[in-house]
Amino acid sequence: MDKDHEPLLNDKDCEAKSGTLYSTAADTPKCNFISARHALALLTFFGFVNVYALRVNLSVALIAMVNNTAGEGLDNITKECKEPLLNESHDDITGEFNWDSESQGIILSSFFYGYIFTQIPGGMLAERIGAKKLFGFGILCTTLLTMLTPLAARTSFTALVVCRVLEGLGEGVTFPAAHALWANWAPPLERSKLISFSYGGSQIGTVIALPISGLLCQAWGWPSVFYLFGAFGLLWFVLWMSLVTDLPKDHPRISSEELHYLQKTIGDVSKMRKTAKAPWGRILMSLPVLGIATAHVCNNWGFYTLLTCLPTYMKQVLNFDLSQDGFVSALPYLVSWFVVVLAGQLADHVRNKRYLSTVAVRKIWQSIGQFIPAGFLVAVGYVGCNKTLAIACLTMSVAFGGFSQSGYGVNHLDIAPAYAGTLMGLTNTLGTLSGIFAPLVVGVLTEDNPSREQWQIVFYIAAAIYSFGAIVFCLFASGVQQEWAKPHCGHGDDQQTGGHRSSINRSSESSSEDDHLS
Question: Which residues contact 343 (CB under 8 A, 6 or more apart)?
Answer without folding.
Answer: 192, 196, 365, 368, 369, 402, 403, 405, 406
